[in-house]
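Slide 14.
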Amino acid sequence: MSHRDFRASRRMALGGALALAAPGPARAAYPERGIRLIVPYGGGGQTDIVSRVTADALQQRLGQPVLVDNRPGGAGNTAAEAVVRAPADGYTLMIATMGTNSGLNALLYRNLPYDWEKDFLPVGQFCSTAHAVVVHRSIPAENFSELVGWIRANPGKFNFASAGVGASTHLLMEDIGAHLGLDMVHVPYRQSTQAMTDLLSGRIHARCMGLPEAETVRNVASVRPLAITSAERRDAWPGVPTVAESIPGFTGLAYFGITARTGTPPEAVARISAALNEALEDPRVQAGYARVGADAAPRNTPEDFYRVTRADAGRWGPLIRRLNLVAD
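Slide 15: predicted structure.
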């Protein structure tokens, strides 16, 4: 969806809301039944963790069940296809990530069954998370600078896992490597659990993973966190430097939000947006995100979230093209 098209869709939504306020036949208030929240990755990873915090918060405020439906596959494409095939009635929503909603998958995959610019309507962002670079202790590096030195001294011998070609965890490591001139081997995984198993055993030297997932292993003896991708150090990760201390200005945050099918009734979008913003100001919800290393988003509108998705498209799209990445 172009910015012009998005503005037009918002005018239509506003018109619909005004029409709802006008006298006419009574209409049942949304939602009348349970809502399905499709998560584009399997259980246990960062997307699943923060999605379940959000589903619980929405359920409390909407007064209807919000059921998490994990649909892993194709870096989010399986989930996106399920959404575009469902009715545009507000009862099937999807967790928005940069692969499906910033157009990165459109660069990585051929013949997608959806159009990221036309088929989805942004509803709102609920959190963001930085990433951690976690290294197996078989690599003789006690800090990030030593890691960079070891990789430079051993070109092509250092490998790292990601959630797949073009995933945020892949792109961040490629971007770090490009800035520092590092020769590293990428090993894509379909399942986060297998990647974690291989990291803990030493088959994989490193993973870049979202803080919600990294929280689960940061105190495990076989690995050590060496850097995080937030702009500043985090109190919850004492002694772990930022990548920005080696690459000035570098950050790497993953956004998480909610999207609906284009054509979803404006009253449904407005109701979900209002419930989401109410949840974001709840200290219990904020604490739920913080417990897994995520930061609650400030109050935001669908237009605000649209701008976030476009900013990521502008940052990561050129890197994908430069590296000639293909996922299928």
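Speaker note: The first strand starts at residue 35 and ends at 39.
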